[in-house]
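DATA SHEET
Item: assembly model
Revision: 1
Owner: S.N.
Input lines:
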Amino acid sequence: MAPPRFTLAELAARLGGEAVGDCASPLEGVAPLAEAGPAHLAFLANPKYRGQLATTGAAAVIVGPKDRDATAKPRLVVPNPYAAYARAVALFHPAPPVVPGIDPRAAVDPSATVAPSAFVGPFAVVAAGATVGERASVGAGTFVGEGARVGEDTVLHPRVTIYAGCVVGARGIVHSGAVIGADGFGMAPDAGRWVKIPQVGRAVVGDDVEIGANTTIDRGALADTVIEDGCKLDNQIQVAHNCRIGAHTVIAGCAGIAGSTTIGRHCLIGGGAGIVGHIAIADGVTVSAMTLVTKSITQPGTYTSGGPLMAHADWLRNAAHLRHLDRLARLARALPPQGKTDGHDDD
Amino acid sequence: MAPPRFTLAELAARLGGEAVGDCASPLEGVAPLAEAGPAHLAFLANPKYRGQLATTGAAAVIVGPKDRDATAKPRLVVPNPYAAYARAVALFHPAPPVVPGIDPRAAVDPSATVAPSAFVGPFAVVAAGATVGERASVGAGTFVGEGARVGEDTVLHPRVTIYAGCVVGARGIVHSGAVIGADGFGMAPDAGRWVKIPQVGRAVVGDDVEIGANTTIDRGALADTVIEDGCKLDNQIQVAHNCRIGAHTVIAGCAGIAGSTTIGRHCLIGGGAGIVGHIAIADGVTVSAMTLVTKSITQPGTYTSGGPLMAHADWLRNAAHLRHLDRLARLARALPPQGKTDGHDDD
Amino acid sequence: MAPPRFTLAELAARLGGEAVGDCASPLEGVAPLAEAGPAHLAFLANPKYRGQLATTGAAAVIVGPKDRDATAKPRLVVPNPYAAYARAVALFHPAPPVVPGIDPRAAVDPSATVAPSAFVGPFAVVAAGATVGERASVGAGTFVGEGARVGEDTVLHPRVTIYAGCVVGARGIVHSGAVIGADGFGMAPDAGRWVKIPQVGRAVVGDDVEIGANTTIDRGALADTVIEDGCKLDNQIQVAHNCRIGAHTVIAGCAGIAGSTTIGRHCLIGGGAGIVGHIAIADGVTVSAMTLVTKSITQPGTYTSGGPLMAHADWLRNAAHLRHLDRLARLARALPPQGKTDGHDDD
């Protein structure tokens, strides 16, 4: 089936904004400025690519207000070109509709509730008392545990696991291999052995949340682990028991968040970052890639740890001194003050 | 089904310790001091929460000997309150019993041995020659490979993979997405290509081991990879081929251990830590979160690498100097000795 | 079934090289020098083990040309002993042959194409329009999405996910839990919410690629994510959308590569390393374990970031100064030049 086509006029009607120039030619898809062909819609979202406006082969371009006259190409002028690009791609590549029905090879418990408009794929399991909402999709081989709830319009891709009692809200997307609600990591030392602390809380995921492939979100120990509405989690992220991730926070791949930590709203957590347990991070905080956050952060801003990249030979030389910063500092402090120095505020 | 209730007297009988005060009122569950309600059992395991003893709404409290008289509430006085709390939660939230039997939708090879008291879920596979012990549970969609062995009372949650020939001991718990016995990462360079080294050892997991969601433990190259008894592994941990993890060692989420490394008994490996290959770590070592261990550790203690968290602007300023520590050090050494300095012991 | 046996003469015929000494005795397997028994073939690939030549209990040894006369044992003299060892192990431990046929419990769409010589296991799914090549193996519970292609002689272990439209080339190995082609992590901010950017590119994996357990390779946003021929990826690696990994590059476990980054050919990326997005890494680059690469690398060589391992008490002392390197540097620069210093080249 051929992908749909849209004229600039049709795009303006659906995406908003002002169509300038030829509004009647059908466009066949979206492409970056540098790669766009004569039937493509391109977009200028990042100023560093403005130069490509002059050379792009695109038929039309999405631009912001201040670039309205930076090109003679047919163009859609919108306040937020990047968001308009996202929505344009969705128009040209509509998601395949959910085909209602339970595959005969699925295992749906008689006491489970699957909405008539929902899909359950082959070899999927919907256990006793679980509910699957309207138009939701439970992919092949996906497991929805006893009493778990899957909200309306949510897509669970193949091979997802939702443990008993856990919740995924509406309009969510959970990618393959994700595990929601496995036991949190809790045990008590006793005479040289570890006694497991049963994890009886839930993992509760809000609405409009996307969870990446092989990401794990543990259930709480006594209370719940909570992912608030609108959060976006990339692949291979670990969220430990009793964490709370604030609404609309974005977490990049391979980040790990230890137990009972709360992260604010609208935060950006970088790839491979680590956040220790039992701390609180304020709203609007950005954590750099592979940074370890070892204490609570109370102010918005960007925070970083770790050393800079070096040729290995340089690193070896520096690393030796790094072990002796203490001596260096004492030498320096022993000098008579000279030159401008800032105050001494070790913390 | 309502959760069970216990009086303080019943708890003392099951958990040991001395019941003080009202021993006859039924308790309905366990909660932290700050959140406990009038039918809850709370616990004081961490001294920093002692102040909450005065304000908790709990009906009764688990305390240690020295807090015996720190509250007038009915209380269970035990030597190890945290372990008693763990066991109390297990009493109030008993694990659902394993329902014996092989689901008709499972694929169990005729040459496999599944104990009559074991459970095998829908779409699970138990391959030729594999054995599943008494009261073990093989979750939906879990794969137990040819000749693999699953010990008695072990729970494999849904969607676990045990490769051919591998072993999980008794009373284990393996969470969804864990992969035990995939090929170790071994290849030989040959004329600009890589020749795969077949991995013919096994992954052997001892008794009383818990393995978290999406954790991977590779099989050995020629010999076995071994996880000794009582180890607890969190989610998304990678254990490479031919490692040996000593008994009762705990590894937090996202840690990675490279090939042929041995870790001692009763170690604590922090979240996101990395341990290079072909080294040995002594018993009783603690490795901090996101620390890279680059050489063998022969003494117990805590070890750390990496830099402290900073506001990004500070980090940028410091990072530039970090590249030139060498010059700084030479400048400092060129000074006439003054002030107290420690010896020079670069290593 | 007993493993095959080979004489040194037979091994020379299959592996090449010169057989010296007793060529007629059957050998029963391969073992390291230190562990080899009287029927074992050992190998000397790493000079540091040369001393073990004198003490090994092996029946025969694989050695390089310059060790031809370093032992009196029967020996196979080859240019590349490590590669010969790899191939010898494959001879003694042949992979079980693929048994052609589609398990009756698999779900293969009528419009899919499965080669007659291929295997499809129980509870596997091969969706509409997908193709599975000659002698390929689709493991139990593995999902091959709509229109996806699996090349000839490729092994997909149990519980792999290949999303719609994605490609795995010939002679590949994909381990359990790997997810190829999940959505890349792309969204546009819009009035405090995130708008999903549909990911309509593919993930395309070349020939002779091995992908480890629970590794994730996202599909591209508009263009494709590409893993070139001969790459070897360990477990739990994250490759984000629109990356290109050059041929024969090796990536160790837990590494993460952010979006739109290109890595050259014959690179070695260390375990737990992180590589930020939108950069380029030259051919022949080695990145150390847990190093964060924050900018493009144009020259071959080894690159490292991060601090050295210390006893935690030392780390605490040093970390305090690390926050004040700036002051240290200014103090040092304020001194009259003395001693040899290198040029000032902050970057």
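QC remark: The helical segments of chain C are 8-15, 81-92, 312-322, 325-333.
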